[in-house]
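For this section, I looked closely at a protein sequence along with its fold in token form, which I now present.
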Amino acid sequence: MFGLHPHYRQRHRVYLIQDNASYHKKPEVYSWFAKNRKRVEVFQLPPYSPELNATEKVWWYTRKEATHNKYFDTPKELCQALFTTFAILQKHLVPFISLTSAFP
């Protein structure tokens, strides 16, 4: 997020929708939002509402495809399984689109 502003035109606003994760509530995050409120508008999702969070659906799919009922001897093997699943989602957008279709 901190390196995002060079990618947007000067008068365009960024709309950020975030869940209630504890790291979103850190003082340095609030400070950054306060300094950049002309460019960034933040919307909080209601607590305990994963059905409104597209990321939750993508993680559900990832866990199902990559990690559910699987044992990994090393963190490297776990990462490889995750990266493989993400690569499949990037190449074949149908699963990704169906996961996020409720989010216009």
About this structure: Helices lie at 27-35, 54-67, 75-91, 93-100. The longest strand covers residues 14-18. Residues 51-100 form one domain. The chain has a mean pLDDT of 83.
